[in-house]
Amino acid sequence: MEKDYGAFMPGERLRIDGSRTGPLKGKTFAAKDVFDIAGHPTSNGQPTWPQTHPLPAAHASAVDLLLSAGATLDGKTVCDEMCYSLAGSNPHYGAPLNPAAPDRAIGGSSSGSASAVAGELVDFALGTDCGGSVRCPASFSGIYGVRPTHGRVNASGVVPLAGSFDVVGWLARQARLLQTVGDILLQGDAVDISPTKAIIAEDMFARLPNRDRSVTEIATSQLVEHLGLETIRLNIALEGLDQWVTAFHHLQALEIWGNHGRWVTENNPSFGPGVRERFAYAATLPDNYREKYQPVRDSARGRVESLLADRETIVIMPTAPVSLGREASETEVEDFRASTMGITCPAGLSGCPQVSVPLSNAQGPIGISFLGPRKSDESLLELVTIMSAKGSFNL
Question: In whole angstroms, what separates CA 305 from the centre of its chain?
């Protein structure tokens, strides 16, 4: 496990050579085991899943695009069970190690992808992000991660969790490579932004433990000063982040049960702790909860849209707290998940792009994020690349 950090699915490591030409020629990548690879099983983090689904006949669209751009697929990575977790462990396939902080969890559900990148086993990796599953492990392992605008990356051939929140994301050790991958994967019209103002999301920083908050606020001040941005300190969620989290949890659970409830009922898979309870709860939710919580989502989306409408404003926010220790109890994991979702849910509710950049911290890696208006992905990635080249993320 020390050699590959437990990042990859058991068995012989899958390898598919990319095109001989292209902007990613010579680069290697891994794919979370929710991405279809023709002729190979997709586990979705659950051993009953491939037993009850046919072998894929084609690659997932994102995999195809990367192979055509010259990148070589070098392994499928472990993910949290059914991707319904942020813990970074899987009762069937193990818990990938965190190369940047071996005593701490790598985070999920794109756990293996983050581990493979942070451990320098591949150059970059594909993951998926519904409630923070790319951003959190990126933050926890000291690498870059992006959750793009919802719908801007083709998700065909990817097992869904909650479709109106799901996105295909990716992780890398270098900002420039993160941007190059975006050039390949992002589709549709882009929105150019020219940031002159930075909203400091005080309600999100307030959810961090004091030691994490001091580190990220110092970094934020340095970044804002370096960029020459006017700062605006305010709360993002007028109703309170807890209301946004509650709406996210229930709408997500309704979609997840809609996608997988029949399969769960018919196959009775053996779920691990946490995932078992979340599926059991999702099964109990009445349909009228959509009407109850959708207005909160609409309000959240409208609020973020209004804050970023001038295309001159970005939000700077923490990505997540420093991750839990590897031996954390299930109760600690659930409490941590609830707290963290208050930081990760605004991007999911609004559909806006978010890029997490790594910081150094004596307690462990931690990330800070840039959030922009929908379709501003390219501008955010360019901003991060420029800042990284100037060494602006070193504390």
Answer: 21
Q: What does the alpha-carbon distance between residue 194 and residue 316 come to, in Å, rounded to a whole number?
A: 15
Which pLDDT band, with edges at 50, 70 and 90, does 102 fall under?
Answer: very high
Residues 217, 202: Cα–Cα separation, whole Å: 10
C-alpha angle 53/57/63, rounded to 5°?
A: 105
Counting Cα atoms < 13 Å in the Cβ hemisphere of 93 gives 30
Instruction: Report phi then psi at 266, rounded to 5.
Output: -75, -30
Q: Do 60 and 166 form a contact (C-beta atoms < 8 A)?
A: no
Q: Does residue 110 register a pLDDT over 80?
A: yes
User: Hey, which residues does 356 pair with through a beta bridge?
Assistant: 145, 369
Distance CA 228, CA 225 (A): 5
State pLDDT tens for residues 247-303: 999 999 999 999 999 999 999 999 999 999 999 999 999 999 999 999 999 999 999
Question: Which residues form the catalytic set?
Answer: 32, 109, 133
Q: What is the mean pLDDT of the chain?
A: 95
Pairing state of beta strands 15-16 and 72-77?
antiparallel
Per-residue pLDDT reduced to its tens digit, 154-180: 999 999 999 999 999 999 999 999 999
Q: How confident is the model at residue 11 (pLDDT cuts 50, 70, 90)?
A: very high
What DSSP character marks residue 52? Answer: T
Distance CA 288, CA 259 (A): 17
How far is the C-alpha of 343 from the C-alpha of 10, rounded, in Å?
33
pLDDT recorded at residue 226: 85
CB 157 within 8 A of CB 67: no
Q: What is the pTM (predicted TM-score) of this model?
A: 0.97
Residue 274 CA to residue 336 CA, distance in Å, equals 12
Determine the Cα–Cα distance for residues 309 and 165; give it in Å rounded to an integer.
Answer: 21
Tokens of 74: 């070098």
Are 156 and 61 in contact, with CB atoms under 8 Å apart? yes
